[in-house]
Design goal:
The chain is α/β, with parallel strands linked by helices and about 240 residues long. Helix 1 (about 30-35) crosses helix 2 (about 45-60). Helix content is about 30%, strand content about 25%. The longest helix has 15 residues, at about 45-60. It has a 7-stranded mixed beta sheet with strand order 5-4-3-6-7-9-8, sandwiched between helices. It has a two-stranded antiparallel ribbon with strand order 1-2. The chain is built from 7 helices and 9 strands, in the order βαβααβαβαββαβαββ. The protein has helices spanning about 30-35, 45-60, 70-75, 95-100, 115-125, 165-175, 205-210; strands spanning about 25, 40-45, 85-90, 105-110, 130-135, 150-155, 175-185, 215-225, 230-240. Helix 6 links the parallel strand 6 and strand 7 (about 175-185). The chain has 2 domains: about 1-60, no CATH class; about 70-240, Vaccinia Virus protein VP39 (Rossmann fold). The protein binds S-adenosylmethionine. S-adenosylmethionine (SAM) binds near residues 45, 48, 89, 116 and 139.
Length: about 240
């Protein structure tokens, strides 16, 4: 990107490019601040890329439960979802993607962390599985042709700043076939309301976010483990209009 001499716009502490309307600078806070070891203003994709690379390199991934999520296993075992094409944003170490690929689903994953994707690549090669791996930002990269039967995500929506959520839902509609299903395991409410990731959601927030583009929104409470114990999550299933 080029800019005029004397451009006084604030610059990202990570890439040194200025703020733009479609990629504004946000304050570095919370978990990201801890991972980066610095504060200031940065683009969201720069923060997500750098903080997650640090976390995966250090093995400091408190959300990881080292196995596919039991709620996903149940959907497969009960045939609530059946083999088809699945897209997973933010797979991290990829336990869910590996489980789906091992059970006949054709899986594509996209993660902003090169480090996470390289760890997942090693794992799927070792297991002899076929999973398409993409490094990128789901808001800017990845499929757009509406070819997927399902989108599955776990602990991903909670990482996006509130200003990016509507854009993310639009991306879901570009990726899914008409009548394709979104399946999310989403961090539930907590007090005090967090001002940085992992953000928290209520049922109403989830319904409001999805209802313009999705119908038959089913929301059930589930627990999800982390290094810090069990937290309340929602299993959300919604059908693209
Ligand atoms: C909280 S972790 C969840 C990982 C995994 N789904 C799990 O539950 O173990 C969020 C993941 O999303 C990735 N991520 C964050 N922002 C992203 C973005 N804009 N596009 C794609 N991946 C992103 C991170 O690198 C990380 O792997």
């Amino acid at each position: 990107m080029s800019f005029l001499m004397g451009d006084e716009r604030p610059r990202c502490i990570l890439c040194n490019e200025p703020s733009t309307d479609d990629n504004p600078l946000l304050e570095v806070r919370g978990w990201i601040q801890t991972m980066l070891g610095q504060d200031g203003m940065a683009h969201h994709p720069c923060m997500a890329r750098t903080a997650n690379d640090v976390a995966f390199s250090k093995g400091d991934v408190p959300w990881d439960i080292s196995r596919p999520h039991p709620a996903l296993v149940n959907l497969v075992k009960t045939k609530r979802i059946v083999p088809g094409r699945v897209f997973e944003p933010g797979p991290g170490l990829g336990h869910d993607a590996v489980y789906l690929a091992s059970n006949g689903f054709r899986v594509t994953v996209l993660d902003i962390s090169k480090r996470a994707v390289s760890m997942l690549r090693k794992c799927i090669e070792k297991l002899g599985l076929d999973v398409d791996l993409i490094v990128g930002d789901v808001l800017r990269n990845g499929p757009t042709e509406g070819e997927f039967d399902y989108i599955f995500e776990r602990s991903f929506l909670q990482t996006l700043p509130p200003t990016q959520r509507a854009h993310y839902v639009l991306r879901l509609t570009e990726i899914l076939k008409p009548k394709g299903e979104y399946i999310g395991i989403i961090r539930g409410p907590r007090e005090p309301i967090p001002e940085s990731q992992p953000y928290a959601f209520t049922r109403n927030m989830i319904e409001q976010l999805l209802s313009t583009h999705f119908r038959n929104i089913e929301i059930t409470r589930v627990l999800s483990g982390s290094n810090n114990g069990q937290s309340e999550y929602f299993l959300v299933i919604a059908c693209r209009r």
